[in-house]
Amino acid sequence: MEVFAEFLEQIDNSEHRDRTEKVLGWVTEKFPNLMPVIKWNQPMFTDHGTFIIGFSLAKKHLAIAPEEQGIHQFSNEIVEAGYEHTKMLVRIPWDKTVNYSLLEKMIEFNILDKADCSTFWRK
């Protein structure tokens, strides 16, 4: 989590900072083999040099980016969880709970699906 310290310090809203820290901490604990990194000023996790999941903040939500394949794979579950999504990210409103089970599935999917991937992004 040290790698995310400066990023977290820059979040003015303490509730958003606390929630973001909790989510990043959860990923770190649940998936200790993933590498926490900051790229493009955003916290993300990689596995053998390939992108697994990233996070960003907006005024109204915490965004989760599991790449397009992760969105496509879980689009029904994302909607069932009450979240909106685009082709590339899931929006979790600050006033809704984080569905950690869904987050876990997205991360596990990317780890398995990208096991043989040698590039940062899917091609």
Mind explaining what this structure looks like?
- The protein has helices spanning 5-9, 14-30, 67-80, 100-113, and strands at residues 35-39, 42-47, 50-57, 61-65, 84-85, 90-93.
- The mean pLDDT is 96.
- It has a single domain, classed as Aspartate Aminotransferase, domain 1 (Alpha-Beta Complex).
- The chain is of the alpha+beta class and 123 residues long.
- It has a six-stranded antiparallel beta sheet.
- It is globular.
Low-confidence stretches: none
Number of domains: 1
What is the spatial order of strands in the main beta sheet? 1-2-3-4-6-5
What is the CATH architecture term? Alpha-Beta Complex
CATH topology: Aspartate Aminotransferase, domain 1
Helix residue percentage: 40-55%
SSE topology string: HHEEEEHEEH
Shape summary: globular
Record the SSE blueprint.
Elements: H1 5-9, H2 14-30, E1 35-39, E2 42-47, E3 50-57, E4 61-65, H3 67-80, E5 84-85, E6 90-93, H4 100-113
Antiparallel strand pairs: 1-2, 2-3, 3-4, 4-6, 5-6
Helix pairs in contact: 3-4
Nutshell version of this structure?
With 123 residues, the protein is an alpha+beta fold.
